[in-house]
Each structure stands twice: as structure tokens, then as C-alpha cells.
Design goal:
The protein is α/β, with parallel strands linked by helices. Helix content is 45%, strand content 19%. It contains 16 helices and 14 strands. The strands form four sheets. The protein has a six-stranded mixed β-sheet, with helices on both faces. It has a four-stranded mixed β-sheet with strand order 2-3-1-4, with no helix packed on it. Strands 5-6 form a two-stranded antiparallel ribbon. A hairpin with a 2-residue loop joins strand 5 and strand 6. 35% of the residues are buried. The site of magnesium ion has 4 residues, from helix 6.
Length: 440
């Protein structure tokens, strides 16, 4: 019997500059980009399966048309364990899928979706929902910036694509069951909200079936604030808008319900008291509308929660993917710090003898024989990564900034000086977190 082999695929997303969107020839562009990736990127390592190329030599024919190229590897199981390869090496043994797109520059909109409250004469506005036209510049590069140890990003993307494909083909739910609901749960600051937004953007770029997309983010916590009288009306307004988008089958509509545990907490608290309150009415209306909206085949529902236990909500219960998003491991921390370092080198805040930091696999090999500035910096950065275990992604991305603000305040510092500042900032952060847990 013939065995099926699953070829690794390289997904290449070409983001066009605004000026080039009208008169670009897609086939010529693909040929030029292919030539560039196969010939000029032979020395570029691809780590954590994705890479975002933002600057191109002037002599490449597409430099004036292309804003960035994102390269994403979808490896099969045997490949994921193999040695670190360059982009050029991967190019030769993968299938290639191309996507060409432009970004919407418009700002997110929250018209009409603001809860205004008059609290003891003080006017206060609270945004409960915001919507974006996808793909948008605000989320560009977000997917690539998120680092996870497991293949969580690849799994989410293939799950969501399959779910949308099944609903598009009208697969009978009674025969093959599949809900378009995702739940990401885990500790604060681990990238759940960012990952949901980045996923919505990715789906829009990858799924040629849709002309464009919309993301509606609903903050359950603000919606269920004390001003319930207005919340009921707002729920209606939010869902009228979502439904209007969903009726257009060429649009992919992603609904992100952030901090979804607020809904179940509000309901169970109100149910315990004797009278049904506004809170119960609002939550019930919300859940009914969600169930209705889910029936549109082009709607994807993403939910996030800080509560890792059971969430008492039927629609979350039916989520096909419930993914725990944890704190980054040491290799992931190193990868995050490395990206921060490279960014600070790019803008000249760090300068001097070290112009880049080693990729993790190169670093492992470097311990035995390399002693130059790059190897020393990279090895120290790895040591600081070990020291930073337990921090959330949010804290890690802030620490290079704090290091500069507290201990440097100047431009053009040597990498070794920056490393020392980062070490101090990490120790300070650790101390603060320990003090916080002691006072709890
Ligand atoms: N795994 C990660 N890799 C890289 N950056 C990360 C990671 N996790 C979090 N971050 C950074 O932290 C920031 C905050 O993440 P985000 O708000 O999405 O977290 P969250 O899990 O939704 O937090 P909360 O539970 O408090 O709502 C992101 O913008 C991102 O820069
Ligand atoms: Mg969040």
C-alpha cells in the first residue's frame, strides 16, 4: 500500500506598499520574490518557524512595491526535530504557497459602541466594543512577534482554517460536528488577546475565499460594568453591526470576546441573589445573540480568559479548541529578548562590536568554540533568560525598555553595557514580584 507523505510547506505572505496596490503584476512579483528567497537568503536562519523580512536591497526589483515578506514553515513531525536550517535550505525541500495582500490603514472604530455613564456628575466613557477592517496595519507583524514553545500557532491556524472550510462547504453538523469557537486561557500577559487578533489577521490573509475581514472585539468586563441600563441597548447595537457584516458572505467576521469569565461570573453572582437583575438580562441577551450569530458560516468566535478552571458558559463549553497559553520557557524567553535586542541594534540604541545576536541553535554550538563579541553577548543573554524564567511575555517585552530607562538613558551603548542593565532590571523585577506575592 502506498504511504502518504505530507510535504512541508512554506507559506510566503507578500505585503504590498500602499502605492503599489493598484498596478502590480502578481505573477511577476511571485517570480521575483521566489528568486530572492532562493538565492539571497541562503545565510538566513529561520527560527521558531517564522520570519518577517522588512528590508530589501535596492537592487531587488520589488523593493519599491513590497513592505514586508513573512515566511512561515509548516513542518511535518520528523522535520521539527531536525537541525537548524537556513531559509535557502528550506526553500529547496518545501512546497510554496504565496499570498499577496495590502493593509488597511484606517484606525479602529468604536463609533456608537461606547458606554457613557454619568456618575455623580462625572462623565466617563468606556469602550465596550471596537472593530477593525482586516488585514490592518495595527496587527501587521503581531503573529511573528509572538513566541510559543509548542506549535500552538500552527495548530490554531490549521484548526480555524478547517473549521471555516467545513462551514463554507456546508458540512452537515449532525454528521461531522465542528464549532467555530476557540478558547484561549491562561495567566495574565501571556499573549491571549494578541494571539486572537493576530489569528484573525492571518486567516484573512491566508483564506483567499474571503475578500476581506472584520474583527469585532467585545470587552465583557466593560460591558458588564455597573451601568447596566445602557448595556442592554449596547448589546443590541453591537450585534446589529456584527450581523450586518456576517450577511455579506465575502467577509470573514471574527468576534473576539475578551475576558469571557466576566459573563459567567456576573450571571452566577446575580442568580444567587433572589431577584433576576439587569446583569442576568444583559448576559442572557448576549448569549442568545452569540448563538444566533454563530450560525453564519463566515463567523469565527474567539474567546479569552484568565480563569483556567471551568467556565460556565454553554458556548465556551462547545469550543472545539481550548488551548492553555502558559508562560514562556527559557528558549522562548531567549527568542523574545533576541528580537528586542535586534530591534534596538536596528535603531542604533545598541551599537558597537556586536551587530547581531546568535539564533538559539547557533548559540548551543557556540558554547564549545566561539569567544567573539557576538558569542559572548548571546551567551550572557541566555544566562539572563534563565534568570527571567517565570515572567510573562508582557513583562519580558517591557524589560529592555525599563533597563534603558533606569540604568542607561543614552544612545549608542555597547551590547555588554546593555546586557548588564538588563540583568539589573530583571533582578529588580524579580524583587518586586516577590514583594507583591508576600503582601497577597
Ligand atoms: N509568548 C509571547 N511572545 C512574545 N510576546 C508576548 C508573549 N506573550 C505576551 N507577549 C507580549 O505581551 C503583550 C500583552 O499580551 P496580551 O495583552 O495579548 O496578553 P493577555 O494574555 O491577553 O493578557 P491578559 O490576560 O492580561 O488580558 C503583547 O503585546 C506581547 O507583546
Ligand atoms: Mg487579554
Amino acid at each position: 500500500m502506498a504511504t502518504m507523505t505530507c510535504h512541508p510547506t512554506m507559506h510566503i505572505e507578500i505585503c504590498l506598499k500602499d502605492s503599489a496596490r493598484k498596478d502590480v503584476s502578481y505573477s511577476e512579483l511571485r517570480t521575483e520574490v521566489s528568486r530572492h528567497l532562493s538565492l539571497h537568503c541562503s545565510g538566513l536562519y529561520i527560527s521558531h518557524c517564522n520570519l518577517l523580512l522588512k528590508s530589501f536591497d535596492r537592487d531587488t526589483n520589488f523593493a519599491d512595491k513590497v513592505k514586508s515578506i513573512s515566511v512561515d514553515l509548516e513542518l511535518n513531525d520528523s522535520e521539527s526535530e531536525s537541525r537548524l536550517k537556513t531559509l535557502g535550505e528550506h526553500w529547496k525541500c518545501t512546497r510554496h504557497s504565496f499570498y499577496v495582500f495590502g493593509l488597511n490603514e484606517s484606525m479602529p472604530s468604536s463609533d456608537d459602541l461606547v458606554l457613557s455613564c454619568n456618575k455623580e456628575e462625572e462623565e466617563e466613557d468606556m469602550t465596550v466594543a471596537t472593530h477593525w477592517r482586516l488585514p490592518c496595519s495595527e496587527f501587521h507583524g503581531l503573529w511573528e512577534s509572538l513566541v510559543y514553545d509548542s506549535s500552538v500557532k500552527a495548530q490554531l491556524l490549521s484548526y480555524a482554517s478547517t473549521a471555516l472550510l467545513f462551514s463554507d462547504r456546508d458540512v452537515d453538523q449532525h454528521i461531522v460536528s465542528c464549532n467555530r469557537v476557540i478558547l484561549l486561557h491562561g495567566p495574565p500577559g501571556t499573549g491571549k488577546t494578541s494571539l486572537s487578533k493576530a489569528l484573525a489577521q492571518k486567516l484573512c490573509v491566508r483564506m483567499g475565499r474571503y475578500r476581506s475581514g472584520r474583527l469585532m472585539e467585545i470587552n465583557s468586563h466593560s460591558l458588564l460594568s455597573k451601568w447596566f441600563a445602557e448595556s442592554g441597548k449596547l448589546v443590541n447595537r453591537i450585534f446589529e453591526e456584527i450581523e450586518k457584516f456576517a450577511q455579506n458572505s465575502e467577509l470573514l467576521v471574527c468576534v473576539l470576546i475578551d475576558e469571557v469569565e466576566s459573563l459567567s461570573a456576573a450571571r452566577s453572582a446575580a442568580i444567587k441573589s433572589t431577584e433576576p437583575t439587569d446583569a442576568v438580562r444583559v448576559v442572557n441577551a448576549f448569549l442568545t445573540r452569540i448563538d444566533k450569530i454563530k450560525k453564519y458560516p463566515n463567523v469565527m468566535i474567539m474567546t479569552t480568559s484568565n480563569v483556567t478552571g471551568a467556565i460556565d458558559l454553554a458556548f465556551v463549553d462547545r469550543a472545539d479548541i481550548k488551548h492553555y497559553i502558559g508562560k514562556p520557557s527559557v528558549p522562548a524567553i531567549y527568542h523574545i529578548y533576541r528580537s528586542c535586542f535586534e530591534e534596538l541594534i536596528r535603531v542604533g540604541i545598541i551599537s558597537g562590536s556586536c551587530s547581531s545576536v546568535l539564533e538559539l541553535r547557533e548559540l548551543e554550538e557556540s558554547f564549545s568554540y566561539k569567544r567573539d563579541a557576538q558569542a559572548t553577548t548571546s551567551q550572557s543573554l541566555y544566562e539572563i533568560s534563565r534568570l527571567s524564567e517565570g515572567f510573562s511575555g508582557r513583562t519580558l517585552r517591557k524589560l529592555p525598555f525599563l533597563a534603558h530607562a533606569f540604568y542607561l538613558k543614552s544612545v549608542g551603548v555597547e551590547s555588554s553595557v546593555f546586557i548588564e542593565a538588563l540583568r539589573k532590571a530583571v533582578l529588580k523585577q524579580k524583587k518586586e514580584e516577590e514583594e507583591l506575592t508576600h503582601t497577597d
